Amino acid sequence: MKYLVTGCAGFIGWKVTEFLLEAGHTVVGVDNINAAYDTQVKQWRLKQLEGTPNFEFHRSDICDRDALQKLFNTSYDAVINLAARAGVRQSVENPWVYVDTNVTGTLNLLELCREFDVQKFVLASTSSLYGANNPLPLSEEANTDGPLSPYAASKKGAESLCHSYHHLYGIDVTIFRFFTVYGPAGRPDMSAFRFVQWISEGKPVIVYGDGKQSSRDYTYLEDIARGVIAGLKPLKYEVINLGSDSPIVLIDTIRLIEELVGKEAELSHQPFHPADVRATWADIRKAEKLLGWRPQVTFREGITALVEWYQENRDWAKDLQTG
């Protein structure tokens, strides 16, 4: 098979690309290597892919429709759109770039799929859509009309466009709502990576609230990548949660990392941010039924892998910006 993967130097895009290549497929990868978070880790991920047979990389932006169109000079079995502006708090500071990438970028790709008769489209979405008022665990049928951040709102827009293009043109669409993805070479602006770096380097660990009032459904990167690839089969139109179904209280995450690193955290408590969701917990019955998917990596195993990766790459990972 031949796939176009956008965001191939991103956290999830890198691992999905790696798994597709290992399975013998051809991947055309697109990434603009933007500075939404420290680009050193994006360059590291890209370096793991470069030189692999059947991989072709283009530094391009999905907001640039003309540049994208040039990549459709070949036929694709699917377009996997993992390029996104992610992050709740950054979207409050600069909502425009989130709409550009997550809404207009998705529209560009959908329109090119229509124009060039690509039958399958996969979209990365987010558990942030569920907002604050839905019962736990969060099912795909829950109300998503109350996004708490421009990031969540932009992903709601992307999902709506996908539905329109499925309805109008029959494009087979799978939308994945990811729950707090973590693992080796993770995003340095997300909690798991930040906690490992901060505790390892003796920096203050910023905790919003007391650390006991919020929980996250942490999902290991390789489990997420397996789920995305399982969703490449024909499904017509589906929205599917990918999560661990085992939420972890924030302070327990810190305690586990303290144990694995062998250092005590210096906690710095800050007020909750109004754009943050207090708790996430995925109902994954749909993924189990449609994809035969369940997470395989326990939280302890996943955090151990992240800590080990950090220690192996500490000479440069210690300087990654975590803002």
The portion of residues forming beta strands comes to 15-25%
- Give the fraction of residues assigned to helices: 40-55%
Mean pLDDT: 97
Largest sheet: 7 strands, parallel
Note the gap between the termini: 39 Å
Which outline best applies?
Answer: globular
Structural class: alpha/beta
How would you characterize the overall build of this protein?
The chain is of the alpha/beta class and 323 residues long. Helices cover 41% and strands 18% of the residues. It is built from 12 helices and 13 strands. A 7-stranded parallel sheet has the order 3-2-1-4-5-6-11, sandwiched between helices. A two-stranded parallel ribbon has the order 7-10. α6 links the parallel β5 and β6. α1 packs across α8, α7 packs across α9 and α7 crosses α11. The radius of gyration is 19 Å and the shape is globular. It starts with a strand and ends in a 6-residue tail after the last helix. The mean pLDDT is 97.
Which secondary structure elements does this structure contain, and how are they paired or packed?
Layout: E1 2-6, H1 11-22, E2 26-31, H2 39-49, E3 55-59, H3 65-70, E4 78-81, H4 88-93, H5 95-115, E5 120-126, H6 150-169, E6 172-178, E7 181-182, H7 191-200, E8 204-208, E9 215-216, E10 219-220, H8 221-230, E11 237-242, E12 248-249, H9 250-261, E13 266-270, H10 285-291, H11 299-312, H12 314-317
Parallel strand pairs: 1-2, 1-4, 2-3, 4-5, 5-6, 6-11, 7-10, 8-13
Antiparallel strand pairs: 9-12
Helix pairs in contact: 1-2, 1-8, 5-6, 7-9, 7-11, 9-11
